[in-house]
Amino acid sequence: MGGSATSALPDGREQASFSRLHAVLLGGQFAVTAEIGPPRGATLAGIRRRARLLRGWIDAANITDGQSAVVRLASWAGCVALLEEGVEPVMQLQCRDRNRIALQADLLGAAAVGIPNVLLLTGDHQRFGDHPDARGVFDLDSVQLIWTARTMRDHGRLLSGRTLSSAPRWFIGAVENPFAAPQRYRAERLGKKVAAGAQFVQTQFVFDVPAFARWMARVRELGLHERCFILAGVGPVRSLRALEHMRREVPGLHVPEAVVRRMHAMPEDRVAEEGIALCAEIIQQVRDIPGVAGVHIMAFGWEEAVPDILTRAGLGQRSQAGTAAVAAAELSHSPRSARGNAPEGEAAGRSPAPSPPSTGGADGLASAPMSLAQYSRRLAWGAQAARLFRRGAGGAQTDRLDGYGR
Amino acid sequence: MRRDAASSPSGWGGGPPAADASPRPFVPRASPRAMSRLHRVMEPGRAWSTVARLLEATPPLYRVFTWVERLVKGWLFGCRMCGQCALPTTAYTCPQTCPKQLRNGPCGGVSPEGWCEVFPERRCVWVVAYERAERAGRITDLRRLVRPIDQRKWGSSSWVNYWLGRDNYLWTADAERATDELPLVSVR
């Protein structure tokens, strides 16, 4: 399971890609991933709604895993919902809640259901969450977990040395915080994760672009940008209260004074718009930094802002050429896309009018299998529409999206 | 310098931390240079391995030895007797005093000024390790990848384990030269 496509590198060589996100990065396109926070309830409706909203705008979406040590629906379950909605998932897996047995089991499970990207991290301490009375496991740390995942994938072996009956395949990711102490060695720490097997990295929120640029300079010095794709973490500040929450409650998040002043200078009702504008500016700035392969947009509870942010940053919807090539490759390899799920989502994403988000009760919407002829017609129609659209430039796109993509 | 959680510059959480069993970051009481010199004396050899085998064969002696080890290392490093000592790679700063038990730290939650995510009034033990390693000229040690520990060895004597060659798998030679020939993470 998982993608076994090959993609063309910019210089024409072929390389095996583990997922669509991987293929996009290999092709040299600026990647966009987003984050979807799962609910505190036994329902996938919210995740499905957000997936439909973001489909076509992003290359993959993370489902967070016990973020801030708060109980929410499991990442793997949210990822399965994303697969059904035609959005490529990134499953997050952290070391706080599981020992090495469960971690390896969850990794195998993810690969078996077709989750093609995993993001492996240590996790926030339980002290921050709603269950501070729980035991924090921390049997492995993030470097060891990445190392374990790579051993499972590339050598087909578990930590115990036993061989796996079938080797999993995922695109292995990690996180890094360029702004946490010791700043001088944060690039080296990324180097450890890359040596352990990390292939892509999503960083903590970037508000201080010069500091991020300094980290990137050191990363380039170490040659890490060639071994690992770096996606800068960005996100809109929705309100002054959200800003305070980010400054005080989120471990590792550092908001520089200049940004705080800028937000406070706005009247209360204009803060959200300024937050979006700032986010778009930061995306444009980090895009100019050599070695940055994409952005990871974290807009908690405000995923509707993502299309607006991307439009303002000049990114628009995902390039039709890139996704069509990848989708075609997937069609020939993956059983899931043969059933029409992934291409269904892809075609819908390329249509000029985004599908309106459903207001609930949309659980269990399974797409009917699509014939190859139907799929080719959709591809052709989508390609035509995208060409017309691009010619119309960003302005035309914004007109169709009133406010936040509805 | 003691700092109150609520007043630290990054403003973590609200109020003092709740009492819990999490290990607390411990700043070591011995310099890395002094410890490196002492370490050379304690390197495994025929003498030490004979001592180790004798200790293991005689449980009462082993218990006394372990008790002494706990006292000495506990006072010097905050040692929690994991039995698989990583001190030589961390400029003699114990990673098991990290609340997240990171063997390849630091985590991303440490504040920009170097305060622990969990106990904001204490320095992150890995920040301390990096600073000490830098001062002692041993910063390359921290490029090594450290393998997962064997959780069954808690409470055993790390010196005895070291002398009997059980620590050989604990870390890689040098992460910088690691390519696809990087040794597997599994130890068995």
Describe this structure as you would to a colleague.
- The complex is a heterodimer of chains A (406) and B (188).
- With 406 residues, chain A is α/β, with parallel strands linked by helices.
- Chain A has 15 helices and 10 strands.
- Chain A has one domain (30-317): TIM Barrel, CATH 3.20.20.
- An 8-stranded parallel beta barrel of chain A has the order 3-4-5-6-7-8-9-10, surrounded by 7 helices. A two-stranded antiparallel ribbon of chain A has the order 1-2.
- Mean pLDDT of chain A is 81; it is low at 328-369 and 389-406.
- Chain B has helices at 32-41, 46-57, 59-77, 125-135, 158-163.
- Chain B starts with 31 loop residues before the first helix and ends in a 25-residue tail after the last helix.
- The chains are: A alpha/beta (406), B mainly alpha (188).
- At the A-B interface, helix 5, helix 6 and helix 8 of A face helix 4 of B.
